[in-house]
Amino acid sequence: MSPKHEPFTPPGFYDLPANSIGYLTRIAFRAFSRHLERRTLAAGVTSGQWPFLRALWNEEGMTQHELSRRVGMQDPTTVSALNTLERAGLVRREPSREDRRKTNVFLTENGRALRETMMERVAEVNELAIRGVDPHDMAIARRVLTRISENLAEEDAEAGAGGRP
User: pTM for this one?
Assistant: First the structure.
């Protein structure tokens, strides 16, 4: 179980959306997605397809289910994105050699060729977003956001293992 502790602030503090980390990260995420999609659409890649390509550039051949888990999406969302990526000639699916009930996902040559261009566009958006932010503050922000994600993943794991919903 997660350790219980006193909250940093009283619940009323979160009446203002700008005081909520969830609200602020959602707004930042939406802005990132808009700016990234403006840059990736020229190559035919939507912000919804982007996480799947990125995961596959790091490791090809995983199952559709594992790909869903890695990008934090539900299996039906993954299937839909893969259908579109497959029609665009960026990925291919093959039955698993170990278990014919499973399907593994691979990039095509066209999918692999997009990596350099897409990563340049990601770098552009990140540089735009952090303009004027001290590098030390960015290191802290990365650590804090990573810890927040870990805390919430722990809670998910506990809920899945009989913890609270």
Answer: 0.77
